[in-house]
Each structure stands twice: as structure tokens, then as C-alpha cells.
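### Sample
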Amino acid sequence: MYGTPVDTEGKPSALSPFLSDQNAERVALALCRMRGAALKVGQMLSIQDESLVPPPVLAALDIVRQGADVMPRKQLNSVLDAELGPDWSSKLRSFDYEPLAAASIGQVHRAVLKDGSDVVMKIQYPGVADSIESDIENVRLLLTYTNLIPKGLFLDRAMKVAKQELARECDYVLEASNQKRYKELLSDSDGYYVPKVIEQLSSKKVLTSEFVPGGPIDKVAQLSQETRNYVGCKLLELTIKELFVFRFMQTDPNWSNFLYDDATRKFNLIDFGAARDFPKRFVDDYLRMVVACANKDRAGVLEMSRRLGFLTGEEPEVMLDAHVQAAFIVGVPFAKPGGHDFRANNITHSVSNLGATMLKHRLTPPPDEVYSLHRKLSGAFLACIKIGAVVPCREMLFQVYEQYNFSDDYSDVTASTA
């Protein structure tokens, strides 16, 4: 999949004989039918940079990102009857049986309340929560038997974290609580809006919220440079604020979760199933490490990497060199004052060139917190690359850093694996 796309004579590469447009599309469509955890994995893979994923896979996985097969009407009604009672429709003026979107664990429908308010109802697929264990295990077996995942990625730890995340995402009561918490946290922040939860039409498997307008942030690439810069700044501001101010982050970087409304210049934020807290001591040291990356401080990167659990202290020098180089590359957007042009300085390809060394010599999996955190951070960077934003990243980071209240305890810290 990641080999040279053509040989010296311009012919298709023989490194991956199974990687045809048709086969890639078959995989994507199969994931759509499987729903649940398998589709979630497909969606996570689809949020990638073109330089890392072959075009046939990128195009096929875009099918997955756009949605799953929809529930039959009878099945949909049975879920609504069980969750909201057989009289649920009496609370509505209208309900659109054609889904607005079909996602990994549920599908979304437009509806209108008795008072005329437009709402969206997210309705969970039957059995999804019960199938998490088997779905993730099937994905793990597939990746293991096909040798697509090298040993240095510590697949078992990644699968364990995926099971925990998906279990939380299947609890719409928890998601409703996350959504209300986000609304409160962002109440004083300009440019962001979180829709309110409609309590009387929500349950563990149904979540109803007010409808909000806007298009996915990747569509902003078609707008003016000034707008793209504004969107990139607001996206990075939100990401920095979530981690270093709130210590509470929505970690799913799916572009459809960030709806930009150009008429109001607001981000309408949706889908909080993947939101999670981060421990204060972890955030303290992670901020120190980001600043060390930005300042090309090798000693600081290595110290914080050991404290956070990225390194054991027993790694060979070749691994430490690759780790530090990768850290410095990731820190490039924060390295210099002024606007960072994400499209002109695509960092993902540079990091991938160091991947083989790190995978070969890595002695420990990363701390559990970073699986979701790095997915969100890479998603934010990739969105800025996609729309071609120019963002004053260093100024934004150090504005937070200079006001940050570090804990007094500077003892040895290991990130929680809970």
C-alpha cells in the first residue's frame, strides 16, 4: 500500500497486486455494510493525507466517511418505540424518514418539533454496542493475518483503546452530557456554537439536538484565502484550548463534525461521543513537550517523552535520534513567529520517512491518552493542509503557555493507562 506507485518504466507497481480501484471500493462498501467498529476504523483511516494513502484507497474510504447503509423503516421505528415510547411521533410536527447522514454507530434524521423548531435525531443501530468486542477482534485478526500492521505499532494496545472509545460513543446519555458541557465551556468563545440537547427526545440510543447549518470544513478549500486562514485559526485555537485550557477534548477529527457557516462566520460543532478528559499532570508535561518541539530543545523532548511514557530510557541512540527528529518536524508549525503555511510545509510526509526506524526500535506503546489525542491533532493539521490555511501557530501556542498554571509537583510522571 505504501510502496512506490510506479516502477522505472512507468508501469503500475507490483508491490501490492491486490490494490486495485475495484478491490479498494469493495473493502469500503463491505465496511459500510458492517457498520459499528469496523466502519469506525474505516472512517478513521479515511481522514488521511494524500501523500500517505494511495489514491484508490483514499477515494474508496471517502465512501466510508460519507456513511453506512441505512436502517429499514421498520427497524428504525422499533428503535424509536423502544427508546422514546410508542407515542414518540406525537411530540413532533414532522419526521423525515430519509436520513440526513448514516454514520458508524447510528444515523441522523431531520425532524420538526411541535413549536416549529428544526432538530436532528441521531438513532443508534440495533446491536452495535453489543458487537464492539467481536467487530474489533475481527479487524485485529484481519490486520494481523495480512501483516499490514508492523509489530512496533503495538496493535493490541490500540485495539484495547478502540474498544473503550467505542463503548463510550455508544452511550448517548454520556454524549448528551458531553455536549452540554461543551456548550458551557464555549459559551464565552466567539466563533463557536454548540447546539442544545432536546432532553424529552433523548435516551441512551437516541440523541436529539437543535439543527445547525454549515458545511464540513474541507469544503472551505473552495472559499477565499482570507476565509481559509480564519477557519484554520479558529480550528487550531479550538484544539489548543480543548487540550491546554479545558483539558476536555472532542477527539474525533471527522471533518463533518465541524460545520462552518460562512454567513455567520461560526463553527457549529456536533458529535461529542468521542469527547474525553485528560489528566492535569499529563497535560502539564505534554505542553512542556510541545514547547520543546517548537524550540528544537532535544533534551526537553527526551525528558518529557520519558516522563509521558513515549520512551523507556533503554532505547538505542538511533531510536532517540529518529524520535527527536520526528518531534522537531511535528513542531515546525510552532517553530517560527508569523503565519505558517500548512499547504507549503506539509509535515506528514517528512514524519513518515522516520517511521520505519521508530517502529523497528520502539520498546513501549505510547500512553493511552495519545491514541485519541494524536488522532485529533493530526486531523486538525490535515484540515489546515486541506484548506491551505496560513495560521500564526507559534503566537497562539505561546499565548496559552505564558498563562498556563503548571502543577507544583514536578516529580516523575507517567501518563495514566486507565
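The radius of gyration is 22 Å. This sample (ABC1 atypical kinase-like domain-containing protein) is used throughout the tutorial notebook.
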